[in-house]
């Protein structure tokens, strides 16, 4: 069984590219007697995916319930789909998660598993029941730079943890996949983006000198001790300055913000880069303590100690304020030091730790690739930057069923490397050995990849990462490969369509088209997912040996065979008739829609 999780950052554009790239692919689905859709072909090329979990599909519920979704993505040959859409008035049209599972693999589903109306309406979680285990597909809120964002994120995470505990209490094992928008290990973060606790560094130096210890102090720590008071004082003057940027190709202008400080000599210095908001511009240069008030219990918790900042920001401040320039060798030494890493007081980091240490879940990727430094982030893929925020967790008893696969690397292209888990190999994997080219900052988007580059994403099933093309999404996919014994544990299941939660998770199966009324005498037939395939298919299902049936007109449904002969003028006068007999009922003849509503 192969489970794949992928933040597509918009299913419609991703599907459009898949259909463009694989519409003419000759790969056939052995389980289908007809040619599969390009999307089904794409899933087969990835090693015949059993369960696909997508985040940020951004498809409105109305599109699914009216069957107007892009490329009929709710009905993929051989799969059932289960949707959670964002219906929240504040953010409708964003978020959204969907789980595709092969027919016979799901007993029930729930698009409202958190049991919190506000959170469930955001379309961030769908749970599928697979007999003896459940799968949570999630898109965790980012949190942003505001207290409100962090409150929403922690509400979601706490509700998710309770939902998983409820399933365990019912005897189920839990698998959790998706975009967690959090990190658990310093190796999940690009080394220049790790944070350093300045007070810890200063205390170490003071202790060494106080005890007159005979040990060498790294030069970078001496630099911090010598200049930190000046840097701290200058950063008290920081302010966000409005600025305007222009796209050199389209000439479109954008209102941005950038941080500025005043040096002791009165000179102004710009810091950082252009950001969308003043809060984002100031984020990296504010060193005060930060607290978080838990909305559930009202407790105030320290979430970042004083004088904790990113290594990149520290290097910039040392260069622009203290005129001390560190080279890459020194910066790497700082990043690998014990004092550098993730913010240990971050609420989402502490939540992830509880997931592992208290709830008994396992970070599967880190279990198999303990030394790997995972990276992915928009155009930063080409400079090997970014971080790992997409995870697969399993309850510890399920770990024995996880198969690493034959591949012993991170799917690092076709080239061999001295260290298959090292930076060079990771860069080659992320860029298909250089075949994926970055977009220019002058506009024009990401370069169109070759077929050879696109096909580099495919390979044997494994547990790890799948380097999907950057033109499809700014996230790559992650995979969880289960042994055949796990398939046997799951067995063959029948979807419980009588379950109300399951029905709500499949809004595409609720809609009845006007054809279903006009063809009421036709036998009910459907494809493997239980959904009528098309209006033409329904026409072909109608009886063909009855001439009267073939010639039946719309007028015949209203009990007046002369309606077809009514011209524009007579039709107008006829509409003034108060009522006529139709199937034994009196209805207004100028309101056909009301008849259908009845």
From TrEMBL:
Q: Using the UniProt annotation, give all residue ranges assigned to the region (Disordered).
A: 558-598
Q: Where are the transmembrane segments?
A: none
Residues annotated as site: Important for catalytic activity = 390
One GO molecular function term of this record is: hydrolase activity
Q: Which UniProt keywords apply?
A: Hydrolase, Magnesium, Manganese, Metal-binding
Q: Where is this site: Transition state stabilizer?
A: 181
The yes or no answer to whether the keyword Mitochondrion is present is: no
Mind telling me which Gene3D superfamilies this protein's record contains? Endonuclease/exonuclease/phosphatase
Whether Magnesium counts among this entry's keywords is yes
UniProt lists compositionally biased (Low complexity) regions at: 569-582
Task: Give the protein's recorded name.
Answer: Endonuclease/exonuclease/phosphatase domain-containing protein
Give the organism's phylogenetic lineage.
Eukaryota, Sar, Stramenopiles, Ochrophyta, Bacillariophyta
